[in-house]
Amino acid sequence: MVQFSEQQMQEFNRLVKRYPEGKQKSALLPVLHLAQESFGGWLSVETMDYVANLLHLEPIEVYEVATFYSMFNTQPVGKYMFEVCQTGPCMLNGSDDIIAYIKEKLGINVGETTPDGMFTLKTVECLGACGYAPMMQLGKHYREHLTKEKVDAIIEECRNNAARNN
Amino acid sequence: MGVKLLLAKAHVEGIKNYDVYRREGGYQSVEKALKTMTPEAVVEEVKKSGLRGRGGAGFPTGMKWSFIAKPEGVPRHLVCNADESEPGTFKDRYLMEHIPHLLIEGLIVSSYALGSNDTYIYIRGEYAWIVDILEKAIAEAHQNGWLGKNILGSGFDCNIHVQRGAGAYICGEETALLESLEGKRGNPRIKPPFPAVKGLWERPTVVNNVESLAAVVPIINMGGEEYAKIGVGRSTGTKLISACGNINKPGVYEIDMTISVEEFIYSDEYCGGIKNGKRLKACIPGGSSVPILPANLLLKTAKGETRYMNYESLSDGGFATGSMMGSGGFIVLDEDQCIVKHTYTLARFYRHESCGQCSPCREGTGWMEKLLLRLDKGEGKMSDIDLLWEIQSKIEGNTICPLGDAAAWPVAAAIRHFRDEFEWHVLHPHEAQVRNFGLAHYADPLQVPAGA
After folding, report:
1. A biological process (GO) annotation for this entry (chain A) (predicted)?
2. Which of A67, A124, A126, A138 to mutate to test the interface with B (most CBs of B within 10 A)?
3. What average pLDDT score do residues A106-112 get?
């Protein structure tokens, strides 16, 4: 069952308190981020309904927001999501080669997840790292100046982290 | 070395921390404003400074502030636009990452000027780690009495909250940003009413870019008139330029708007010339929305005059032969880059980011992307180029918000200046897949400095 822990509930309350009385809908985006982080990296209908209930919204108000913003995943994703930028400035610095290399290395296409559920490859549009291209977002942070060697090291790092956490 | 007002202290060890920032003279503008100036006087200084919005539109900040409605008993809000998403632009990120207290300081003074007791920073969702940096700076400012109730005994209360977006370029448009801040889809609103009258929660609101708000600090410290002496003409003060693409030294540079484009690209103080000893082919000087210029029109205007890095000079010649300062996202293309492919990636970007409200933008951006992909792959027809031109002309000016224009302009400029390259893709479809069109006649006919 989808349910925030006590600590997550404290964070929820902190977020809602930032807005005036009766304007709790403003907390929707931050709360959806919290929910996505808390419940496996994506927003199921159950999760969205739970958020709607917490914020006293109609479920449709949550669905329409969750589907509008590209950072919200409405399908399950892998444990590690490679979000590789492909817009102009990254393209000028070889993002196509990086994307092709990741595809080959992981044996998946853009939008797919490896069978072990470890990696998802996603292409994204400009993330504001144009001077440090090519780049990808991995979790909360950016990985910049990507090369094939760096991609290898990142994959290795993820595998090691996953093994350690098991 | 030009004047540095925003980044002068950005590389002082530990400047991210309050103590260091304060020791280096931080928060003096808050003392000056709250202890010696009325809110109206602060607005007046910003007007005198000539500061123009640094997000892209270049609208005078002081004038924007003076429009805010003040109905009795209705709270007003300042919202900081940190939804930096224009391809080629990463200056606000740099400022927030390196010297976050400068933004917080600017926000306190600006909130005082506008009477905003609850001020919001709306930051793009992907800048997740910067949220932590800002929240730490805000907490430090609180602990030291710069935020909270009755700041410095002035009777002014202020809190700053950070709101994360979730991946939508459109939320950089101020009314879409406000919708998003209200927990909705980022659909721009029809104006009027303008945010200054009915903004966040229908309250009077001013939305300003990060860099504009940070610039309020030096403006108050030195006075608006002194600030206006820096730069040239109506391009006053300093501007952050984020340079990227095929250059030796990509990064964020603070310029005082008196240097030439040629110096900016080739001098070691800035971009350091074109990477790998190649030649300059083209450049988008102000973020992906503004017109791309071939090298010859970038370095000199159509009249043969030197082009400078300021609002007036970059737009000299209008869209026929000029471009715009925009957000300061400076994207450089070397001789090996394909204009058709590059334009395609931008068209794909705008299709992805269209909110879908207005048909010309929703449908038009998709058609432009498809046509450009077809042309890039060597599967296009000559008539596709004309069709592309026609579509972009039907988007421009026909949408609620400027995203339509922003999507149309790069396509129009690419065809205007590089039509022969598009035609070459149609006439030599196979060759186009393996070889770049090259420099052709529009390329830099000027003397290229040694080593470039």
Report:
1. inorganic cation transmembrane transport
2. A126
3. 97
Cβ–Cβ under 8 Å, residues B29 and B216: yes
Contact A25 B180 (CB under 8 A): no
Say if A125 is an interface residue toward chain B (CB within 8 Å). Answer: yes
Question: What is the domain partition of chain A in residue ranges?
Answer: 6-68, 80-165
- For domain A80-165, the CATH architecture is 3-Layer(aba) Sandwich (3.40)
DSSP B238-301: -EEEEEEESBSS-EEEEE-S-SBHHHHHHSTTTT-SBGGG--EEEEETTSTTSPPEEHHHHHB-
CA–CA separation, A115 and A107 (whole Å): 10
Strand A80-85 vs strand A119-124: parallel, antiparallel, or unpaired? parallel
Assigned architecture for domain A6-68: Orthogonal Bundle (1.10)
Q: Which helix (H) or strand (E) holds B80?
A: strand B77-82
DSSP three-state, residue A123: strand
The structural domains of chain B, ordered by start, are: 18-229 (3.40.50.11540), 238-312+326-332 (3.10.20.600), 339-434 (1.20.1440.230)
How far away is chain A from the Cα of B268, in angstroms, using its nearest Cα? 16
- Tell me: the pLDDT tens digits for B420-449? 999 999 999 998 888 777 665 554 443 333
Residue B280 structure tokens: 């300059």
**CA–CA dist A43, A82 (Å, integer):** 18
Compute the distance between CA of residue A158 and CA of residue B326 in angstroms, rounded to an integer: 39
Distance from C-alpha of A86 to C-alpha of B326, rounded to nearest angstrom: 22
Cβ within 8 Å, pair B345-A30 = no
Residue A72: its pLDDT value, please? Answer: 98
Q: Contact B175/B191 with Cβ under 8 angstroms?
A: yes
- pTM (2 decimals)? 0.95
Contacts of B348 (CB under 8 A, 6+ apart): A86, A87, A125, B369, B373
Q: Which two tokens stand for residue A16?
A: 């809602």
Can you give the C-alpha Rg of chain B in angstroms? 22
Rounded distance, CA A121 to CA A77, Å? 9
Label the pairing between strands B205-209 and B77-82. Answer: parallel
For the stretch A126-164, pLDDT in tens is 999 999 999 999 999 999 999 999 999 999 999 999 999
Q: Are B85 and A128 an interchain contact pair (Cβ–Cβ within 8 Å)?
A: yes
Nearest to B87 among A69, A72, A126 (CB): A126
Nearest to B85 among A25, A68, A126 (CB): A126
> Residues near B307 by Cβ (< 8 Å), separated by ≥ 6?
B260, B261, B262, B298, B299, B300, B301, B313, B314, B316
Q: What letter represents residue A40's amino acid? A: G
Tokens read off for B249 = 């030294």
Q: Which residues pair with B123 in a beta bridge?
A: B82, B164
Q: What is the rounded distance in angstroms from the CA atom of residue B107 to the CA atom of residue B290?
A: 28
Distance (Å, rounded) from C-alpha B101 to C-alpha B351?
36
A61 → chain B, closest CA residue: B184
